[in-house]
Design brief:
By secondary structure, this protein is an alpha/beta fold. The protein is built from 4 helices and 7 strands, in the order αβαβαββαβββ. Strands 2-1-3-4-5-6-7 form a 7-stranded mixed β-sheet, with helices on both faces.
C-alpha cells in the first residue's frame, strides 16, 4: 500500500512539473467565445499569450490562413496557425505533423471548445493545410 501511495505521489508530481506548452492567441477584444477557447487551452496544459488585435483580417493574412478556413480567432504554435475552435488534442497532433502549416475549424460550430451551448453539438471537422495549400481532414467530431 505504501508503494502505491509513493508511486501515485511521484506520478502526480511529475504531471504537475510538466512545462506548459506556449501558444500565441490573436483575438478581437469583444469576442466572448475566444476567451472561452483560451480557457479550454489553459485547462489542457497550454500557456496562452493573449494578443488583443484591432484588425484580425490582417493577422490572418499575415499568418497565411485561407479565407475559406476562417473563424473568429487565430493562434500560432511552433510557427503553425491554429484557426478557430480547434480542440487542444488536435493542436498537439498538429505539432507532430511537419508537413502541415496549420489546422482549422472553419466557422463557429456549436459544441466545439469555446462554443459550448448545453448539450447541443454541431458536426464539424478539423482541417489541416499542407505547404502546397492542400487540405485534409484531421479529425471529425459528430453532432449529438
Amino acid at each position: 500500500m505504501r508503494r502505491l501511495l509513493l508511486a501515485t505521489t511521484l506520478f502526480a508530481s511529475l504531471v504537475q512539473a510538466a512545462d506548459p506548452i506556449a501558444i500565441d492567441v490573436h483575438r478581437d477584444a469583444n469576442c466572448g467565445c475566444c476567451t472561452s477557447w483560451i480557457k479550454h487551452l489553459e485547462e489542457n496544459g497550454f500557456q496562452v499569450n493573449d494578443h488583443v488585435e484591432t484588425d484580425m483580417a490582417a493577422v490572418k493574412t499575415r499568418l497565411g490562413v485561407p479565407h475559406r478556413l476562417g473563424s473568429c480567432h487565430t493562434a500560432v504554435i511552433d510557427g503553425k496557425f491554429v484557426e478557430g475552435h480547434v480542440p487542444a488534442a488536435e493542436i498537439l497532433r498538429l505539432r507532430a505533423q511537419p508537413d502541415l502549416i496549420g489546422a482549422a475549424v472553419p466557422g463557429m460550430p456549436l459544441g466545439s471548445p469555446g462554443m459550448e451551448m448545453g448539450d447541443q453539438k454541431d458536426a464539424y471537422q478539423v482541417v489541416g493545410l499542407n505547404k502546397q495549400g492542400e487540405e485534409s481532414v484531421l479529425a471529425i467530431y459528430p453532432a449529438n
